[in-house]
Design brief:
Helix Hairpins; single chain; 12 helices
Length: 262
């Protein structure tokens, strides 16, 4: 695998910014989509890292390039440079690990997380935060943002008492969505579905399940079953549009049985 230094990457980025027409035109606004895309590609590569570790190395490099790119734009404006980014995260890691770099005692991962969160709360207050839910990025995927805001509210003392209570809330929101739909109020039904998604994210939190991962697993499961159904129909020269609901239900159950571990 090719080797390189961080400074070499910074220097390459500087040259690109000076000489490449496309790189010259980029702004923080135009780069936003690429940061998100690269982050998702890293996450995708992580799923197969045991089989394709070099793929993860490549994707991490692409994500690192986005960091260096934005640092170069900031350098041009005199705001900060790549070294400032490194210094900031170094200081933050030291500050948030007093059990390693200080005299705080933490023998378990749970104690480390508790200390970490307390330090972050103090940092937010010093930064001018006035609410327990300040600082949760709006750009997060909605289910992840819902989970994080729910956690913050819970730490502030606003939460359900049990998972059963949250599931009751899920049922309540589903009922309200059904009622709105029955009345033909599609916009209202949509808003109620949003409430349902939020409640479901909180239920996942109570069950110690990552809502984004749970949702992704559900999509993956549906995809596998649907592909199985399509393949079964393709052998007959048909598509889902060519058969009735009863046949689709039969093939779906067949797919579920064939992929029962999915």
């Amino acid at each position: 695998m090719a080797k390189g230094t961080f400074q070499e990457l910074v220097e390459v980025m500087h040259e690109l910014r000076q000489k490449c027409p496309w790189d010259k035109e980029q702004t923080f606004a135009t780069l936003r989509q690429y940061v998100l895309e690269e982050a998702y590609e890293v996450a995708d590569a992580m799923d197969s890292v045991e089989k394709e570790p070099h793929k993860l190395a490549d994707e991490l490099g692409d994500l690192l390039f986005q960091v260096v790119f934005q640092a170069e734009l900031a350098t041009e404006k005199g705001w900060f440079d790549a070294a400032d980014c490194i210094g900031n995260i170094r200081d933050k890691l030291i500050r948030r690990h007093p059990h390693v770099f200080g005299d705080v005692k933490a023998d378990t991962a749970g104690q480390v997380l508790k200390n970490w969160e307390a330090i972050k709360v103090d940092e937010r207050k010093k930064g001018g935060a006035t609410s327990a839910i300040d600082g949760v990025p709006r750009a997060l995927p909605s289910l992840l943002r819902a989970e994080k805001i729910g956690k913050r509210a819970a730490r502030a003392g606003f939460d359900w008492k049990s998972a059963a209570q949250v599931l009751d809330k899920v049922e309540e929101e589903l009922h309200e969505a059904r009622a709105a739909l029955a009345q033909g109020e599609l916009h209202h039904a949509g808003r109620e579905l949003g409430d349902l998604f939020f409640a479901a994210a909180q239920a996942a939190r109570f069950l110690d399940v990552n809502p984004e991962e749970a949702s992704r697993a559900a999509v993956d499961k549906f995809e596998a079953r649907f592909r199985h159904l399509e393949a079964a129909l393709a052998k007959q020269g048909k598509t889902p549009k060519d058969v009735d609901d009863a046949e689709l239900d039969r093939l779906w159950e067949q797919a579920k049985a064939a992929l029962k571990n999915g």
